[in-house]
Specification:
GO terms for molecular function: DNA binding; DNA-binding transcription factor activity. This protein has 307 residues and is an alpha/beta fold. The protein is built from 10 helices and 13 strands. Helices cover 40% and strands 21% of the residues.
Length: 307
């Protein structure tokens, strides 16, 4: 009923609104085109075109069939390549989760441009998560690779790790903040009087982590690192920012560093991937091992590991 020739004929008539134009394009007679469409309508049991002496127009059923036929044709045209790809060990889809601390639209676009050229038939899906949400997504949501998994040890036997480096932290406030003029290390009681600005952990199954919050301290929760930075620039509270992100604001005087008694320790981040991954994931791992150009945008905020 819907072989490739019938589908191509139907699409051509629907797009040209003409049996004669379709006949010219497909090197057929108008009568042959008209007969094929008539047989199709009889097979599906409903009218697909409204015919006049000059043109043909799709019925509502015809509009629906046109959308489906375009999808089917694209699927059939791509199927030989997909089958070859599967036999070669290349995934049909790769899901990548990225830590909010390393997330960059520019870096993502650069990596996807490289991957799309090398694996044109593979579909890539990107997710941004926070803290343990990265591990949660990798382990429970069918993702194959994580850029910026927290820690330097795997949480599952089937997951391999490559240490990327550490995020160094700096406690900051605006120059107008009451704590900005303090000399020497601040005690917790002094810091506790002002709200901490934190990005909330997105984990759903694993235990959530709190970045930095003193007992009894109020907290402002924001969805991403950019929002956290803007809150700091607006003087809404105190807290730690990645050193490499806040450095230019420290240099310009928009933020000032605070000396605190209990400094936040560097946070190790790793590349994590499923051991049974296919060629596309292995290629990404290779890019990170070599610190190749397509992935360098993800590394700009961390102190790189020398391992």
């Amino acid at each position: 009923m819907l072989d490739q020739e019938t589908i191509r004929t139907f699409i051509n008539v629907a797009e040209s609104n003409s049996f004669s134009k379709t006949a010219e394009t497909l090197f057929k007679t108008p009568a042959a085109i008209s007969y094929r469409i008539k047989m199709l309508e009889e097979d599906v049991g409903t009218q697909l075109f409204l015919r006049t002496t000059r043109t043909v127009q799709l019925t509502p059923a015809g509009v629906h069939l046109l959308e489906q036929c375009r999808q089917w044709l694209a699927w059939m045209d791509g199927m030989p390549g997909e089958l070859q790809q599967i036999n070669q060990g290349v995934e049909r889809q790769v899901n990548i989760v990225i830590n909010n601390l390393l997330y960059s639209p520019e870096a993502i676009a650069c990596l996807l441009a490289y991957l799309n050229k090398k694996f044109p038939l593979t579909q890539f899906l990107i997710s941004r998560q926070v803290y343990m949400g990265v591990w949660d997504t990798l382990l429970h949501d069918g993702f194959q690779l994580a850029i910026g998994a927290t820690g330097s040890e795997s949480l599952a036997n089937e997951v391999r790790l490559l240490k990327l480096g550490d995020i160094s932290w700096q406690c900051v406030v605006t120059p107008q903040h009451p704590l900005a003029s303090h000399i020497g290390a601040l005690h917790e009681d002094q810091l506790r009087a002002y709200p901490a600005i934190n990005v909330e952990d997105t984990s759903r199954n694993l235990t959530k982590r709190i970045a930095w919050l003193l007992p009894g301290q109020n907290e402002i929760k924001v969805p991403d690192l950019r929002s956290k930075l803007e809150c700091h620039l607006q003087g809404l509270g105190v807290g730690f920012l990645p050193q490499k992100i806040c450095q230019k604001y420290l240099d310009s005087g928009q933020l000032v560093p605070l000396e605190v008694g209990n400094e936040r320790q560097p946070s190790p981040l790793s590349l994590a991937w499923k051991a049974d991954a296919g060629k596309a994931v292995k290629e990404i791992v290779s890019l990170f091992r070599r610190r190749a150009d397509p992935i360098t945008g993800f590394l700009k905020n961390i102190d790189l590991s020398v391992d």
